TrEMBL record:
Family matches, as InterPro entries: GH, GH_1_N_CS, Glyco_hydro_1
Protein name per Swiss-Prot or TrEMBL: 6-phospho-beta-glucosidase
Gene3D superfamilies xref list: Glycosidases (3.20.20.80)
CC per GO annotation: cytosol
Amino acid sequence: MTFPKNFLWGGATAANQCEGAWDVDGKGESIPDHMRAGGLHKRRVMTPMIEPDGYYPNHDGIDFYHRYKEDIALFAEMGFKVFRLSIAWSRIFPKGDETEPNEAGLAFYDKVFDECKKYNIEPLVTISHFELPYALAENYGGFANRKTIDFFVNFATTLFKRYKDKVKYWLTFNEINFGTLPMGGRNLLGILGEDDEQRRYQALHHMFIASAKAVKIGHEINPDFQIGCMLAYITMYPLTCKPEDVLASQELVKKLNWFCGDVQVKGKYPYYMKNYFAKHGIQVDFEAGDEEILQEGTVDYYTFSYYMTSCVAATIGESDDRVGGNLFGGVKNEYLETSEWGWQIDPVGLRFTLNELYDRYEIPLMIVENGLGAVDKVEADGSIHDDYRIDYFRRHIEEMDKAVEDGVDLIGYTPWGCIDLVSGGTGEMSKRYGFIYVDKDDEGNGTFNRSKKDSFEWYKKVIATNGADLASK
């Protein structure tokens, strides 16, 4: 195996999906706090007011807020070198536009980072992981309003100063390319109401500026900070070798995968998006100095989520099967198997993706989300035999190793939902990713007790051998 000795093995979570404690210690409402469970395999429903009789799965999450010591101890037992987590914006600034932070919120993360340090685990902090305070969406229109740039910069600066000696690795926004899709208008950008492509791209521009400003300020506060970007990378293949399919795939890849990375790594808008804007009558307003801000605020490393791949066709016929996915579906690839939620499993595609990204950007890469959502069965003796999850991870890690052999500078791997948590898309608990089982069902019932799955001991062995021993038994 070729993983470097200092390779960062770990796991990933998000505050809105695991913390719970949604209204305690001064925390304000976030957009996810307004999302009711949507039912089996269905997307959640946003309600303007939080209904007393409604079930909002994020309100309790998995109660990480009160169980963080227990959870971090379990991560340490697996041997984590890094723990990716996010900070709930509305826990620090309840409405998002305050000038002074909520001390109780800051103190909570002090305790979390101190607990990580106790076990020599590096925190990898996502500043905003779909955590926009609801008041910013309601009162300002989210990032469609340029004022929100300053609110985010104030939030990020507060974190940088408070935790400058506790956190080294930062990410500005989670899956920022989500903003290129209609569904991203609400969850990422904070635009309530009907989708408007003009507003969406203007809001995404404001987010680019906010990120770049934060990167520059962060480096001034602590030059040792490593600050990265994070994208949902949806690897796409042409459905056939027909030239029209190849061109359709290339066009979608540039818009969905390359655009946001090009801006955050290269510090400028690429030609193909300028052309797209011109053809679609989209006018992204730049203020004086914006181009310089983007150039001065480029990221140190590139991180991404990788769950699946899909195929793209210039025209989709009635016989073409559609598949689901993270943010974006596509046409079924007959050579791939599919998860219970319709996501195509493609380990070899991860090697392809790593090589594509490193060839384009030539900066360190980290896979900060990867995993299999599945229904787990608890046996009579309490054991959980998730060989399917072990097989998924084994095959992906094998391809990661090959990419490192190819010369890719891969510095870390944090599988998604290292502990079971609330599904971001549907609010389900039955769609489980973790090495650690949490006793909670889709209606919010359960003890919230933690237990180890078979994959827990397997991943512990993988980390202990730096990826050399991937055997299932």
